[in-house]
Amino acid sequence: MLQACKDHTDAVVFVFSFMDKASFEDLPQQMSRIIEPTDDYVKFIIGTKYDLNPHSEIPQREVVDFQQQWQIPVMRIRNLTDYQQTHLHTELNEVAPILNTICEHLWYKDQLLAGKLASNNDLNNLLNDPNAKSSLC
Q1: What is the mean pLDDT of the chain?
Q2: Which of 5, 10, 76 is nearest to 43 (CA)?
């Protein structure tokens, strides 16, 4: 990746399809090509077409093993085949947890960089204290 593209980058999102095992198996190569060991990005992986599970080419065990090995969360989203305005609320409910996870990881990184957190223990304490987040923002 060009250095100009890396400047001021906070996160990197990789996407694969549960219907295409090659796209999942290619993730380590893609990550190695784009991310350097010294890069301090928040990293996410999103697997699409998760709801087509009977046809999935990727066993759940492989996804769990991948998450443990790479220490990167794999989020899942279903296949949206028919976009209709009437289903917007349902689709937002599907995407909201993914967006919340991304925002929380970025917030945590910002808190670490600002020196307001020193470890995951600090984060756990803050998440259990309803007043803590608002005082840090």
Answers
A1: 76
A2: 10
